[in-house]
Amino acid sequence: MKAPDPTPEAAQVPPPEVPRAWLTALHRALADLVFVVLLSAAVVLSGWLAARHDILWDWTRSGQNSLSPQTEAVLAGLKAPLHIGAYVAQDHPVAASIERLVALYRQARPDLALRFIDPSRFPEQARDAEVTVLGQLVLEYQGKRETVRELSEAAVTDAMARLSADRSPLVSALIGHGERSIQSAAGADLGRFGQLLQGQGLRLASLDLAAQPQVPEDTDLLLLTTPAVDLFPGEVEQIQDYLRRGGNLLWLLDPGGLGGLAPLAAELGLRVLPGTIVDANVRALGIDSPAVAMVGDYPDHPLTARLKAAALFPGAAALVLEAASDWGTATRLATRAGSWNETGPIRGALTRDPAAGEEPGPLSVVLALSRPAPGDAKGAPREQRLVLVGDGDFLSNANLNQGGNRDLGLRLVRWASGQQGPDAAPDRWAGDREVKLDDLRRVLVGGLSLVVLPLVFLISGLAIRWYRWRG
């Protein structure tokens, strides 16, 4: 006899549940364990990656915590590892400053080696390196050595540039007739500019044409400044012969006479406008004297590429190149409208007088000229270059650090000598380390930290509490 089928009600009754509390607890423990393992692995891997790969952001205004483009260009040109010996004990406070500076260089050149040498423990090495100050650095590169006694990016980069240079250009400065000295520290002389050139790897030499028959053949650039006493005709002929042989020239003129160099100016087709340039535009820079010419607009030319700061020329003369010259104008730097060559006394209210030969701006203060250079047995450069500047004061010790004078002066020398190299590394300033707040900013900072942030935290806590209470 067939058993009766179960009722639908009986078929739908589920079997009794087995207690699963132990299984739930096991799942939760395993999940917590996996979370801890994964979190620990993430922390360890993050630390490992952070130790091997540095990612930095420099938010300081002057780039205090990063290298300048000039330094990066020098580092990119190094063809071999560079070694730095720091003569100071590693636990000395100066060593920490050295490590911070060198760490910036290592970001671009990981192969840069730094070694600390305690002068008290290794006096023979210190004497061999001619150590005179604690923390002195000795840079070694391809068998050459440079000593740095100033702990700054500018000093270290200059030393690297000198070490990596294949050949040091020679700049010969004319002396013997009261010219501006490139070695003197007097305000009107060019001693600081000479130090800048030497820091960039250039060689400097004084040239007295009364004692030498001609400008030396290995001169890359002849530097002329306005003499106090006129040159002898034979000396001027030697300068002219130097140019005919393909030499490069940087001539710093001043208002007034040419110091016996009128034949040279005539050969170049140069005419100097009478008087001194006055410029009303300098008032925007807080300069009261109108006898300061400003050049703030730079042309698109390799000589002035990436220059931004305005150059200031105190007591400058305006230059004009006549059409008869066989030199071609590579570029020129000029004043803006609102300037003219003042021929009268510079005092009181000044107005331009066209009848006195006073011409309105823009007026040329710098003329960069070039022409194909004649070849010789030693192989002269393919392009001969000449830079005429209507002011020698802008590179003087008293004015070198005014505006963009320093960078422009270095560019003029480099371009005129036909050399290619990095710009001078900038001098860092401590402005990023000082926080100055006016009254409004102090109120905003205080209100944010004492009122706004506590309210945000309080409201967030109450919102979370309310959400959990409802859940």
Could you please describe the fold and organization of this structure?
This protein is of the alpha/beta class and 471 residues long. It has 2 domains: 69-155, Glutaredoxin, CATH 3.40.30; 169-417, Rossmann fold (3-Layer(aba) Sandwich). The chain contains 11 helices and 17 strands. It has helices at residues 8-11, 21-52, 69-76, 93-108, 123-128, 153-164, 191-199, 233-244, 262-268, 405-417, 439-470, and strands at residues 83-87, 113-116, 136-141, 144-148, 170-174, 203-207, 221-225, 249-252, 270-272, 276-279, 292-295, 311-314, 319-321, 328-334, 339-342, 364-372, 383-389. The strands form 5 sheets. Strands 6-5-7-8-17-16-14 form a 7-stranded mixed beta sheet. The chain has a 4-stranded mixed beta sheet with strand order 2-1-3-4, covered by helices on one side. The chain has a two-stranded antiparallel ribbon with strand order 9-13. Helix 3 (69-76) packs parallel to helix 6 (153-164). The longest helix has 32 residues, at 21-52. It is extended. The two termini are 59 Å apart. The model is unreliable at 429-433 (pLDDT under 50).
